[in-house]
Automatic annotation (TrEMBL):
The keyword Cell membrane does not apply. SMART domains: TPR. Transmembrane segments: none annotated. TPR repeats lie at residues 21-54, 55-88, 89-122, 123-156. Keywords: Repeat, TPR repeat. The keyword Repeat applies. It comes from the Bacteria. This is Tetratricopeptide repeat family protein.
Length: 236
């Protein structure tokens, strides 16, 4: 009888030491934040084994796959999270990002639209949807999304730069020049912006002196594509 009681006591101790669903999830998040993505996936799988309807674990697992550039696996995990709960914008946004990396722009826009409907205050949704629309050559819609962000905070050079690309695609070099000037004024290390500014100045307005100066700046910043234009058009 004594041995049986000791055995039952041992089982109780083992059960008490078994980590809870919440503890496993928290540890998986710690692994994710520290960049140990495979370990994070393993913890999230343990959470899912305990609770197959843990939508946040699927979403976190998808993020870990995304960080490893395993976009198909990430999409699968985000989709599982969405199937369990369609009320959070996060898995829609995250799945959109995975589609964007795969250049599946239409699918990305659909996910961003859903995410935006669930939480229209998230500026990252507008920016990433703008990038997807730019990839689809839907320039006016892309400009709209970039403008939403810039109206809240115009001091964002990367948004200004991508807006300029959409404006050029929309055959509006005047507006594009303004956006590109804003870009380089805020970030004088952006070689591609100097390049695009120089090319636009020369090709759209015949401004050789200013164009060549910006192309040379682009080349000095390591943007080698500027050399072709400099060799062809900027030699004295």
């Amino acid at each position: 009888m004594k041995n049986k009681l000791l055995w039952l006591f041992a089982i109780t101790i083992l059960l008490a030491c078994s980590p809870s669903e919440e503890e496993l999830f928290d540890e998986g998040i710690k692994m994710l934040e520290s960049g140990e993505y495979q370990k994070s996936i393993e913890f999230m799988d343990r959470v899912i084994d305990k609770n197959p309807e843990h939508t946040s674990a699927y979403n976190a697992k998808g993020v870990a796959f995304y960080q490893q550039e395993k976009y198909d696996e990430a999409i699968e995990a985000f989709s599982a999270s969405i199937d369990l709960d369609e009320t959070s914008y996060k898995p829609f946004f995250n799945r959109g990002n995975a589609h964007l990396e795969k250049k599946q722009f239409k699918e990305a826009v659909l996910d961003y639209n859903k995410a935006n409907g669930l939480d229209p205050q998230q500026s990252d949704i507008y920016y990433n949807r703008g990038l997807a629309l730019l990839g689809m050559e839907e320039y006016e819609d892309a400009i709209f999304d970039f403008d939403v962000i810039l109206q809240a905070n115009p001091n964002q050079p990367l948004v200004q730069f991508n807006k300029a690309k959409a404006q050029l695609g929309n055959n509006d070099p005047v507006a594009a020049i303004e956006s590109l000037v804003n870009t380089v004024n805020m970030d004088n290390s952006n070689g591609p912006a100097y390049y695009l500014l120089g090319v636009t100045q020369m090709s759209a307005f015949g401004q050789k002196e200013d164009g060549c100066a910006n192309l040379k700046m682009a080349l000095s910043l390591g943007f080698s594509e500027a050399k072709v234009w400099i060799d062809d058009f900027c030699k004295d």
